[in-house]
Fold these 4 entries.
Entry 1:
Amino acid sequence: MTAGAAPSTAYDDLPYTRGGAAVDRTDAGALVQAAADGDAAAWKALVEGLSPLVWSVVRAHRLSDADAHEVYQTAWFRFAQHLGRIREPGKAGAWLASTTRHECLKVIRSAQRLTLTDDPRLLDRASEDGTPEQSLLDSEEAAAQSERVRRLWQEFEELGERCRQLLRVLMATPPPSYHDVSAALGIAVGSIGPLRQRCLRRLRARLEARGAM
Amino acid sequence: MSDRHDDDLFGEEDFDDREFDDELLEEELRRAAAVLDAVPAELQQIALDAYALHDLEARVAELTFDSLVDALPVRGVTDVPRMLTFQAGEVTVDVEVTAQGLLGQVLPPRSARIEILGGPRPGSPLTSDDLGRFTADVPLSGPFALRLRTGGDVVVTEWLRA
């Protein structure tokens, strides 16, 4: 099954695609199997297809950059280690999302044990130093667009924690299935749709209040 | 709800429009994330290289106890070592991670050659004594796993972040 498959009503079967190229469940199962059998190209496809999801889950938990990098690596190392032993290879995305979530929660827990409040590791934000993408954005013809993106991002960052977390995972590329989102955040599949709607509308209201839409 | 009842058709169109707007906004966020908070390239490269960690020879020792999750914190005591237990069949590996390094024991007691892995590169070697005890004086940071070779058996502990 690829991106154009007929839509299904079961949340569980929502494809990884809600509009992009993707690793859907059947593909994921086949890729995991092939990678376990020694096919390096299959591994590459898995990394390219699911890496943004893992990163989004890490980012949703607001770790420091150093912790974020370590959790991301741990998730992939463990995935490589368990290739061929994963019970439901078709749910590789959910497996990775859930592994990443648990490692994030451990980081948060160990930080809480070290200092009870105001741990900067929990509060610091995505680094904003100049990446190549940033410089591209800064080019003159992109200036207006860039300003809009920046405002959008700023309003997104200032949403309540629950909304910020959900949207950060939903905005992974390709769009994750609700099943993966559920694994990433530990919330019921059935509550994702209504929450998403509420959070997106809240974000839109903030943008409108700023005259940004 | 009653007003929607009066005008089902418009209600539905409204709904579709709003859903469409939601899709657009989510898509815009997706593009913003791809620009402002993409996976760092060097990190994705590490994930690609991690394929080397797929080890057909080894059995995976699963984490069965992690004091970070399974033990209650002791109030006022902050510098507690992290206690971990891994299990692969009849082999148990107990590990204590401290600021100085780690110490551990293979059970049932046996001598083992042990490698501390930090990623898809060769790790630093250790040997356990006849009682299965081992120590390392290098502080752990980041992801790590232990690869144990004992007799003809190879066991690797589940990857964890120290």
Entry 2:
Amino acid sequence: MTTNVRTREGGPVKHRSASRRSHGEAPFRIVSTAAGIILLAIMAAIAVFLISEAIPALRANEANFFTERTWDPNSQQVFGIAALAFGTVFSSALALVIATPIAVGVALFISHYAPRRLAAPLGYLIDLLAAVPSVVYGLWGVAFLVPLLRTPSQWLNENLGWFPLFAGEGIVGGKTMLAGAIVLAIMILPIIAAISREVFLQAPKMNEEAALALGATRWEMIKMAVLPFGRPGVISAAMLGLGRAMGETIAVALIFPATFDITFEILTPHANSIAANIANGFGEANNIGRGALIASGLVLFVITLLVNMAARMIINRRKEYARAGA
Amino acid sequence: MTTIQHISTSRRIKDRVVQGLVYLAFAAAVVPLVSVLWLVISNGLARFDLEFLTHSMNGIGARDAHGGAYHAIIGTLTQVLLAGVISVPIGLFTAIYLVEYGNNGRLSRAISFFVDVMTGIPSVVAGLFVFAFWILFLGFEYSGWAGALALSILMMPTVVRSAEEMLRLVPNDLREASYALGVAKWRTIVKVVLPTAFTGIVTGVMLAVARVAGETAPLLMTVFFTNSINHDPFSGPQMGLPLFVFDQAARPNDTAVDRAWTGALTLILIVMLLNLVARLIAWWRSPARAR
């Protein structure tokens, strides 16, 4: 919306300021451009050094890196990403499904439902959730959430065991995918909520008042005037959350039991992720082991890249849609 | 009058249900916060004393009580400050480039795309990169500076994205009014656009700081563990507070776990203080107050 306006009107404006001799214009522009280029250079360096450090280990690998499930690069040089990559994607998707509706509700609560005087302090309260470091969530997860979930997990398994997510036999509860996903959801919730809230607050007041003046209820006003305006912002917020969930390391490193299998059972202690495996394995890794972990980091990097690209496409399409509808 | 105000029952019920759900969502978000803070405070207060804040772990035996996190606290403050010094200027100028100068050209689109990619960089990958580049390739030692490098990579995209979002929300009318008065573009940015977006940018930087101050994973591979005080971030291992918590929590005895909880409490207090300062700055400079 804004870009169109700017390119159309930016032309003559730029021309005018260029014709007027303005000191500082050129340096300011150069510094801004250089900052952007530095960012690109860092990204290139990350890709180059991850690849160059991963290659020796991948050469030494005796299994297929993409289909092998076990991870034993230090003694046998047999390692593969299959189970770890699945765990990363699955746990993050679960976390996003749990967190997004709650976060949007929280954002709406603060922007449109809470008493105006309380809105700012309550928003600060949610921001505090983001201020809690991941290592603390890890401690909390192990010390509090894992024991808390044991009974409900067993109940779900006994009564709703036909549902694939709640299936599984043997030990139920403990350090499960569910516990990790809940902790991840709590960690990404404040990010999604904070950005959604900012966007909801920026929704045009005129439209909101117009909707209310036409007799809309509060929900109808939000549905017509706030949510369409905020949708791209909410999606980009969810994208940031997903990125963080996939890369979240220490909390899940403490909670996930470091198994190497692919299962949708979220109530049994079978869970791991690429990031958790790196944190748990880095200390005792030898040269090949470190190379293997860097290779897995590269895969994590590529997965997050794909997710971001997909999210970006959704946002762009929504923007065009919103522009066409306006 | 009554006919105008009449709202059908189904619409009213729907409105009430959504209101209930919104309140419920807020409650669901607050419950874990209260639970985490309660556990951290109740478990952390036991060792939250002057000794903890002014002593390191140097010479503390495996089972001894005592000891503290002074070395980790100064490490974290130094590393976060250095990370901010690196990433805030780069991030802010990149956002200015994207919004004001990029004109949606090829470079601008490439930068915008890679900022998105960078947003998705997992903290542990940033740590692996600095380990591979700074320590393995360039041959430098583990140091607080290496940790700051890793943290700054994590901060940059957050700063760019939030600053960009806020700059884009500045109404074009303001820019055009400034141009119409004959003000040069860069002065318009500095005097009109940035002050208008200031509050939002500070909030974004605050969230970025909150994110990196508690990061443990990138520190694992860059600053290394140490029990002693190191004021110099450019040479030798320097502890970080999140790493201190992780390290102490992994030890089997209660005295260490007590220190972990107290470390967690200290870390949360530091981050909260940073947030509070940012809020005060934002409030002090907000356009609404000047009006």
Entry 3:
Amino acid sequence: MNTRFRTPGCTGVSRRTFLADTGMGFTGLALSAMLAKEAPAAGLADVARQTSPARAKSVIWIFLCGGVSHVESFDIKPALNTYAGKSIEDTPYKEVLNPERVNSKIVGGNPSHGGRKILMPLQTGYKKYGQSGLEVGDWFTHVGACADDLAVVRSLWTIHNDHGAQLTWQTGRHPREPGHPTIGSWVSYGLGAINENLPEYVVLGEPTGDCCGGTWTFGGGYLGPEYSGVRMGTDPKNPIPFIAPERNSVAKDEQEGAFSLLGKLNRLSGIEYPDDPQLRARIKSYELAFMMQSAVPDTLRLSDESETTRKMYGMDQSHTRSFGELCLAARRLSERGVRFIQVFHGGGGGGAWDAHSSIQKNHTELAAQVDKPIAGLLRDLKQRGMLDDTLVVFGTEFGRSPGAQGDGRDHHPQGFSAWLAGAGIKGGITHGSTDELGFHAVESPHYVTDIHATTLHLMGLSSRAMEVPGRRRLDMDHGAPIKEILA
Amino acid sequence: MALPPWVLPMASPLQFRLSRSLLRAGAILALVGCGAQAEARPAHLKALAEYYDRFLPSRLATCGSCHQVKPGVARPQSLEEAPHNAFGRALVESAQRLRGDGKRADLPSRLREIAGGDADGDGVANELELLAGTLPGERASTPPAALRPRLQKTRAELVAFLAAYRWRPFEQVQRPKPPVPKDPLWRSNPIDAIVASRREGAGLKARPEAPKQVLVRRLYLDLVGLSPEPGEVQAFLADTRPDAYRRLVDRLLEDPRYGERWGRHWMDVWRYSDWAGWGAQVRDSQPHIWRWRDWIVDSLNADKGYDRMVQEMLAGDELAPEDPSALAATGYLVRNYKLLSREKWMQDTVDHTGQAFLGLTVGCARCHDHMYDPITQKEYYQLRAVFEPHQVRTDWVPGEVDTRKAGLPRAFDANPDVPTYLFTRGDERTPQKDVVLPPAVPEALGGRMEVRKVELPRLARVPERQPHVIDALRADVARRLKAAEQEASGAGSADGIPALRLEAVRAEQQALEAVLKVEAVDESEGKSGSGWTEAARAAVAAQRVAALASARLEVALQESALASGRAPAEKKKTGEALAAARTVLVKAEGDSRRPLDNNFKPRIQSNYPAQSTGRRLAFAQWLTSRQNPLAARVAVNQIWMRHFGQSLVPTVADFGHAGLPPTHPELLDWLAAEFMESGWKMKSLHRIILNSRAYRMASTPDPEALKHDPDNKWYWRMNSRRMDAEIVRDNVLHVCGRLDLTRGGPDIDQNLGLEVRRRTLYFRHAAEKEMVFTNLFDGPSVAECYARKPTVAPQQALALANSRLALEQARVLGRELHSKVGTGSKPFIDAAFQRILCRPPTAAERTECELFLKQQAERLVRPGRESEQTATDLAVVDRPSADPNLRARENLVLVLLNHNDFVTIR
């Protein structure tokens, strides 16, 4: 919860560094004095890793599992209506099917996906919104109304054509390469907490299923488990199991005394294992757990919010209530200084948005669950002035194919969209583009780690300054900030 | 950005993998150009690519490397249209030479033979050209002079690569000869020899042997899942015999708690699940499946061979149709039962059998040929045909007449003739009905499956005829008779019901005996003799008497109910029941006046098929034959992982090309060979592993090694591990002296995990029936769990600090130690450390704890403190002590239960 944990996760830590890191810089003399609980460095970020001025204090990272159609949401393609029912081969754009272009970026793809050639018309209407005139599909009218705050990146691509790409969105790595840190872990690793009573990295909603990354999608990977996201429910009475001692049979000061001893003992026995990331994580988990007992229920007491606010998030309606709660909880966590809030929608299995059939019904229903809550979040952040230092990212693992798969659309990793809003982001713009059919990212293509790099940049971080010894990262892992969307 | 950079070769093992798969994709495209007729060529091309692996540039993984494709021929169909170039000719000639010398002439041998030759005469050797990406059979294609020096370096790498032990998961296991490491201490155990050679190759130094105190705890937790008690630690420390460690290993392997610890491991791999459903409706798995869990535990304790275990799980009903233990083993199949979808049921069975026993993602081939591994879509359905006829049923168990209360869920072939079709794109709505697929195993895995039908004994067909079932029926009626006699001998009743009941039960007993008599005669003499007719008539007579007595009782019961009933609705219902009972009575009276015949009512008995297809047995025997390349490799990899916290093949359920290659292929193969040759005995494998130096190393770090190998890929130390979820819970109870070691039996309600003190593996575990406490510690997913993924989370801290389980046990142990050691704080602290962490405290730790006990007690007596928070509705044992000193001691115990060293195995 403060700088003493900010040593590289797994490697190259000498015994001496560890002692210093764990607050035991001076062994021998006055050891017991040093073992007294350290004054918390609340509110202090480790500025050493910040390489540029920070625009964002926290990130709300919304992730829609299963693959949202880009051509009907934030990258509208009227050409699909023009050529509906035709094979791509019979349109002026048949070049998009060039196998080299289709396959060049896909690694270890699942051959049962792709190859959908018969174009399907748009399954919903669309409108222009705001001063920017941003085109948004009718599944997202509420978010559309916030168009002037959004920077839509329309030229993303990813490397896997199956739902393992959910892991790729979070870590930049192929699903066959688990054990890499997520973007949330990097933020947590790079900055630490503002509020020592809450985790730096919180996970809300049902995450990705085991098929497609499971706990790795919010895992610390080689940075160690202390940088993993902490899952929370939204029921303040039971946000986390065992949030209070059984029948309150332990008094607060009694527990404080016990936890304090535990911290000291763990550090003492850790002298033999200065490199052990598990130990470090466990020490931290206890300090955090102690504080969370009161901080988490307080934070999640959504009933504190006014009726107007609750309505803004759609909490008065059954279909929007569930995701509305998550979005409101995300705001409250962000407000209290949680660095990274990862909000999943439609998790488990391959993901709810995976509309291989009946995309109209699927996307209509699912978008109705998230559209108003997300818009409510943006508006609420704005009215509180929080949008100035809170970054909101809306993403999914890939788009959906312009070609039909029955009455659905297939996975589509060659081109898809995401948007960013808030801290340091230019509103009301689009960046990059796909071709007329929405098939390939053509203008300013970006791999998913460019979104990571943009996020880190806005938090004043650079992944290149966070190299971990013994863990050389590739250019692809680092990505580059998308300068064009920065305010 | 173009290709992801890690797709390019030459950077990491994974990158090689990916580049190889791309290369395969390239090969497939190239084959289209080669023409479908050229059947020999895909195999040659594949062999070329496999031989040179990452060293073959992708542009050479085409037909053009050995053939000239004539201009204008788009799809060459024959050698005439695509004649060999000079290199192709050289390969043909090489084959002739090798055969002439009586040598193997497969493509690798030929490539080796002509590596140094120069087929096109351009002055550059064939192999160098291949490495350079130019054609060794075309004079015009030759590497630029500038490149040539670098080629020699690449060639040296290739030579090393070819000489290194190659991982060939689809070829039969051959036992490799262990290398001789530099360090003589690491030569005697082949595991050590291999591990040390690799480690020396990586320039790393091994950690010394761990102290005995660390070893004893490691061994106990590893083998029996419970930490040693202070006396056991002392005994081991005091045992100075040179083979003290070996003796401890042997002793723990004979401890029945071993089966519980390792049983849970295999329950992960074999996907143990209790039943789940909607209310009382069983939708997944089956009730009483715990008998399979007990079979696992017992089989491990008995050191039954892994081969036999697999055979019993897949085909116990065919292998030993009358052995209830073997039948319980088929719980492995029963577990996949799915009320709502036979498709999903079959899918789970096939896919997980592939992953658990073969380490193959056969499930990929359900919709299309497998993209990475040699399994066609047709072969997937042939595997499915192995399981297609089977169903599940619940047999009787001794002492119980109601299979809902107690029974033996098991598999059996219900539909021997049900056809298996290939489903187009894996969709069951589009079966290819023109071809019925026979059961078979994937060709690439070698061996054949010989299916022989199995004749089933009568008692397997008609389980109700088993003596224990008859005993249970007799016991049941005898028990009711005794109750009726007691009731009738009591105070007389106005309505005469006790007497009527006694009469009815007595008649029922006689009828049962009469029917059993008929069955006995039937069995000894058959139905044709006069004995049978006589017995049958006697049975009819007895059944008529019983029917009459039962009807009289029912009429009396309804009359009595009518007399006492008050509500009109109730009266109406009873009236109807009375009328019905009277009708039955009239019929029974009529029947009893009719002349006797031999149409007695037989017991309800099953009539299961007399034959089983034998498909599963044949499959299981193929699976566990010495020829199967994967079964032993997959099993030893699982065992190794659970000893070292790290597996040799990192993808434990995927040994195919999409998985990751082993770090120590020769070690895996050596262990697999050893395993099979020892009769698939797990205990003997444990012994070899546990007695190795590799296992006994300290887990403490070495800064130098950490720098080069942070993941401990080369085993320079032992890995520290966190206890598995079940072990955390078991040990909280165990160190506090309160673990109930009762073994086996029905699953316990998962919601009682904090109160009931049995070992965790005995609690219910199924979809939506999971224990919260163990889930927080990354307990097994019900769907699949080939390897655990331990995390560290604040929720775990809360569970160990706040749960009733931890608080209660800490209070119990605190008081127990207090009463043992008296008031001195030093002996208390020492005893608590020994009990919970299996070691004494260091001086610094002791000082801290003494200070704590003092300060905490002061804090607890401070006036005005929040004493109101002490709940009074807890049972006395759960309540914190009133004495502040004692309460502080309870706190200290709780702290040690939350200590990192408690959940960590060093």
Entry 4:
Amino acid sequence: MRRFLSSPSAVVGTTLLVLVLFAALFGPLIAPYDPQEFHPLARLQGPSASYWLGTDQFGRDLLSRILSGAPATIAFGVFSTTIGVVVGSLIGVIAGVSSGWVDSTIMRILDGLLAVPDLLFTLLIVTVLGGGMEHALLAVAVAFTPGMARIARSAVLSVRTRDYVRAAVARGESGLYIVGREVLPNALSPIVVEATIRVSFAIMIGATLGFLGLGAQPPSTEWGLMVSEARQFMFRNPWCVAIPGLSIATAALGFNLFGDALRDALDPRRSH
Amino acid sequence: MSRGYLIRRLLAIILVLAIVTLAVFAITTILPGNAAIMILGEYATPDAVAALERQLHLDQPWYMQYLSWVAGILHGDFGTSLRLSQPVTQVVGEAFLNSAMLALTALAAVIIVAIPLGVLAALKRGTVIDLAIGLFSYLGTALPEFVTATLLLVFLAAPNVGPFPAGGFVAPWEDLAGFAAHVILPAATLGLILLAHVSRQVRSEMSEVLASDYVRAARLKGLSERRVIWRHTLPNSLAPAVAVISLDIGYLLGGIIVVEEIFAWPGLGRVLMYALENRDLPVIQAVTLLLAAIYALSNLVSDIIIAKLDPRVRYA
Amino acid sequence: MTKFMLTRRNVVMGLAATALVPGLDLQDALAAATPKPGGTLRISHSTRIATLNVLNCSGPAEYPAVDMLYSGLTRMGPDNKPMADLAQRWEASADAKTFTFHLREGITFHDGSPCTADDVVATYQAILSPDIPAAARSVLNMIDKIEAVDPTTVKITLASPFADLPISTAHPNARILSKAALAGPREKLDTTVNGTGPFKLETYDSARMVRLVKNENYFIKGKPYLDAVELYLFPDLAAESANFLNGAMDVMLTVQQADFQRIAASSGIKAQRIPSGRFVNITMRQDQKPFDDVRVRKALAMSIDRPTLVDIVLEGLGRPAYDNLLSPEFQYAIQTPEIPYDPASAKKLLAEAGYPDGIKIKLVASNRPAIRAQVAVAVKEMAKAAGFDIDVETMSHDTYLANIWMKGQFYMGYWGMQATEDATFNLLLTSNASYEDTGWKNKEFDQLVSDARQTTDTEKRRDLYAKAQELMLRDTPYIVPIFEDVLTASGKSVEDWTTAPLSGYFYVENVWLNKA
């Protein structure tokens, strides 16, 4: 742990992550105003004593909107990645453990699905499903699955030939036991690292979908949607674009730095 | 890298493209709403919708539509855009050319800028320069394209402020200087994320090679530092960068969707968004097919290059 | 309020007087400077010109394109009155059942072939044919017979009397195509043009730019002044306004409310706001609970702070509306009583209607254009105090069109201004209206509208339309909270750029560039 925190990027990453997670958990509780409440006399204002981060085109308090949008934005990243990781890892572990024709069939299909770029894949799924936050979440999860499966499989393959696994096989343990107790825990770290970094991609894809009108919909306070709604007003109050934009960047940066630092800590070979 | 492996990879790609298009086709046509309703919008009367559906052959079952679409493709005919009444090859072809020019400009810029940056960061490891480059690349990866593009627009193309045109397109064969002026901001937006990826990759590989016995040996031989870096270290650090760049082509293909929308660049991303909004199936299909094929092929090419550069990698 | 509106009307009329009224051949007598011919006008717009098919195009940027390329029998002027176009004059029989249109002599299509009564007949037959998607059919469906008396005379016989036929013939989608083009493959109409308008199509690239060039043989001698017009597509509004302000574009077709002040304040820019009857409406299905009870509809009407809505959604660039579909621009519009924002009384009314704990309900809005969701979100906030717990659901336009529009219980509509009272009511409110989506279906109202249609006497019509409006206001079939102004802007050297409150008319043949 101390070694982990000795790198500056880990410190910054952890700090940002704590900040973002705090907002996601307690944001709506500590928001000074109702995030949907109009203040028609205080529209498009810069930061002031009563509105710390200023207001948007309806005079809604930006700080409250950022705080109330944090759970939606962060949860989007975390849940879509989690679904993608769990499903992907299952597929990857099955492929890695079973080998033979099962493995090669799964890998061919995954290779194929990987042929469609992430955002395009997500866009297609969202359009087909009809837009909206839940559909966007599902789409990102589906788009992440093949990549995660590939990583999980190679992690399993690299563990499979290790001595402790061979020992378990020699002891005559059941297949399920070996996978559950020996292979999975040891293959977990690359999966966790990858997942952490992917959360930042998921947050950015979610925001981009919100921007394109295919993700969160008004009156949601999802950060990407906030940027896209405020863009018309950016010359009159740059804060209403800058604040949610920076929030997205902070969240993405937090997960990204934390993931990188985690990788360095878990895999000393790459710690430069 | 056997020939059999190559053929299998190519067959797999074709199979997947077939599955993807079939799925898109089936689901898009089964959902309520279609191109006829979108074309007529709120001024549609049931009569007019029915008439337009007949004209566009949307009254046939979806599998018949798919089969005739596939039959057309086998004859090199990608059909006619439902919304624009122009041949799909024309709509998509022009857009593809425009997108390719944008993407290649971005890619070239990234290669020219990112590799020296990565080398610099590796050589100055732990200094302020390294930190600055690292911070810059992290910021690049954390800002979504639509935020970067908006910022560039406000600060570099606002009236009376910026030197650059705020979006638009000029063909290079009409006016090369005009093309260059228009391509800078969208290419910069696209390039920022890639810049971060590539420079970080180069830095990390370069550091690894610099610390290797091989470089140490070269130094012990008394070779000049410059020679050690340019002749021994850099070439060995580039293979992974190639891999990252080819993977980043997938990013580029996604990134153009947002960037083209904001900078009014008439490319594939715009065509795709417009087709998706209007349920213009033949166009959706052609663009999906094209983007997926480019991505799959670039992955294949990168695998080949990596195998060539790094003899440890073997493909059965 | 009333006074305010009156001043606004004066502004419109003033505008119509100082600007050139097209077609009236004022010969620039009123213009301060003599128009200079030549030059290329660059117009920016933010929605695609996806088709040039004049029969069914409806895009905001498709309208100016077909307005420049084609001409109709008649055309609507900036004063909302029909004026001469291909038809130099027309007369109606006393019973308003037979109309005779006299075409100008020697009109030609862009390919040089003559445009005669036969082409008019062929076009109208196409519009009336159920096999052809044509947006003008709903305003021309009273036509029983159309015939060419001689090459320059067209006689139209109606099934029922309709005094406003010359307004219907001015419909932007009722412009005249050549008989030959109509006989050819219909897809060609989307991408090729052979019209009689002041400009000819040169380049059609829907992804970027559409270029039109001067029609040397336009039927008004000396016009158009411009050599060419280029329509550039900018899907991003920020990029569009930046290009306009830095002079890369001469005209910004539509200015967003959010940007209007900034653009109007820039030096050398002429920004125009034209009051219009374009409105947002809230559809409430009345054949199901809770909107079957007029008290619930009235309660919602009282729960909306309309002047504030104008301020925050339209940036003040519009007028509050009070549930009348007719804006003050309409000839027969009555003085609509204001509905004050009164959530307390609304709450009482809801309790009387049997909802003492308020109503929880979902309001659906399409995401295009953004104003629908903006009004929905604002209404949600305003009506909260009255006990309406509204959950706004915004969805993509295609899903909306397929699943909600004409089917849903509670959703946001958005309509452009119609040319007449008759067109407005037959669009939305009469029992057999094209888009009757409330289930109101009032027989008395139907009768009043139908009687007014057949009357040629102005005073009698005024009376009938007044009664119809009172009936509408009594029952509140729709909530119409705001009328939106039409906003446009032109650069320093552009002279005589005007648009009409009705979408579809732009008079670009009068525009000229005052470049030294």
